[in-house]
Structures are given as structure tokens and as C-alpha cells.
Amino acid sequence: MTIVLIAIGKTEASFIQEAIVEYINRIKRYSPFEFVIVPAVKNAHALPDEVLKQKEGEALLAKCQPNDHIILLDEHGKERTSVMFSQHIQRLQNTGIKRVVFMIGGAYGFSQELHQRAYEKISLSQMTFSHQMVRMIFLEQLYRAFTILKGEPYHHE
């Protein structure tokens, strides 16, 4: 199973970019992984929120394949502990799904079309994080999930 993370806009903070690269390299030891950046919508600040969400949604969906299992990283999604998330990753691997695509939307969330296309929504926290930080936090949790599944001494209960 290939895991894909798709996000809108580039990561500008160098310390976050370094952490992203570090966790991607760690994750690739356990699973095929792709990190896809969708360019930010031009003149986004001049667009109504719903129009912006629609344009971002179209750009995100353009990076998907018809049979992708899409999971939105959304503040209204289901919260899981790290162990529960690792078990969920294991279940996804066991189903024979070829590509699981996690998506990080823009500042105003996801389009209605993306909500309808997604299989589920996951929340990383009830707190709000910058979209750049979410990338790093998610990648760390994905790496943690693999170490939990392998019984490696990274996660402590």
C-alpha cells in the first residue's frame, strides 16, 4: 500500500521543512510514501471562501486516482490515540487498498465535493495548527504508527 500526503502550498519555515524531510525518510523504511504539494491558488485572498475551497478541492482531486482511499485531515474528523491510529493503518494495509491519500486542505477547509469523495475524516487534535505544522505533526504520527506496529521502542505508553 502506498501512502500519499497531499497538501496545498509550499512549506516556508525551514525548521518545519527539515522535520518533514526527516520523517518522510523514516516513513519510507516502512511503506512506499509520496508527498505531493499542490500550488496555492493565485489571488486566493481576493476570492470568496467557498470559491477558494472549490478551486483548492479541484486541485487536490486532480492529484488523485479513481480508486484512492481518501482521508481528510479535518478538525471535525474522528480523533484517535497514536495506538488507535496505528491499528487503523494496519487495517487499511490488510484490506488490499493500493493507495491511501491523506489530504491537508487550505485555511477554510475542504470543498463539499471532497467531503463527499472522502472515505473518512481524521482530526489530529481539537486545537488548531498552522497548515505547515499539520504536515510535520501528521508525518510524525504516521512514523509513530509504523514503529508501534513493528514493536520498536519509539512510542511509550
What can you tell me about this protein's structure?
The mean pLDDT is 95. The protein has a 5-stranded parallel sheet. α1 links the parallel β1 and β2. It has a single domain, classed as SPOUT methyltransferase, trefoil knot domain (Alpha/beta knot). The radius of gyration is 15 Å and the shape is globular. α3 crosses α5. The chain has 157 residues and is α/β, with parallel strands linked by helices. The protein contains 5 helices and 5 strands; from the N terminus they run βαβαβαβαβα.
Index terms:
single chain; 5-stranded parallel sheet; 22% strand; alpha/beta; Alpha/beta knot; 5 helices
Low-confidence segments: none
CATH architecture: 3-Layer(aba) Sandwich
- How big a fraction of the residues is strand? 15-25%
Instruction: Give the overall form.
Output: globular
Here the CATH topology equals: Alpha/beta knot
Give the helices and strands as they follow along the chain: EHEHEHEHEH
Number of DSSP E strands:
5
CATH homologous superfamily designation: SPOUT methyltransferase, trefoil knot domain
Which CATH class?
Alpha Beta
Topology:
Layout: E1 2-8, H1 14-27, E2 33-38, H2 49-62, E3 69-79, H3 82-95, E4 99-104, H4 112-117, E5 120-123, H5 131-150
Parallel strand pairs: 1-2, 1-4, 3-4, 3-5
Helix pairs in contact: 1-5, 3-5
